[in-house]
Here is the input.
Amino acid sequence: MVGKVRLALLVVLGVGVVTLGAAAPGKTTPGRDGAPAGAMMSGRDGAPASAVIKNTHGQTVGSLQVEDAGNGKSKITVAVTNLPPGFHGFHVHAKGTCDPQSKDPATGSPFFSAGGHYDLGSHVHDNHSGDLPNLLVGADGTGAASVVTDRFRVAQLFDSDGSAIMIHALADNHANIPDRYRNEEGAAGPDAVTLNAGDSGGRIACGVITRS
Ligand SMILES: [Cu+2]
Here is the structure.
């Protein structure tokens, strides 16, 4: 991203190569990743991460890259194949373990081993830190997306138990429940089930996030 911006600036300005080159922060600026001190990993804060996404049969159905986008943001790029057409809930989950035999005792969904949605405790607008826009898969079973989030830094994904990327069977409503609906307590807004996973259904594909 920095490279593209610099290239664009160079094209527009024509001159000033030396100045821009010197001013560009690059990857060596201390603290550029912006992660809190407690989440810092030794010397590799700006390093990218990736994941191979597999379905419940262990077949590879996609890949994911996570990279430092500067200003405390992370850029997520994903490409998938052989998935059911439509919108799918797409989240970073709390644990870097993708076991298709690990079933949620409540719903029977596989990949229970990956835990709930990755969250740094922010719960911005009833969402988790690891919540991402729904992934659109076309009629041919392929999909691709790229998104920038300011809700976590790459280094923060590598806590003690790691993290994983998850694709769900159904779309995530992101807790966007109009006031005309009521939860079990009779109050307007999303109930606990919706807040947990956005009613995005069972888990269909998972990828452990690792250092690239
Ligand atoms: Cu999820």
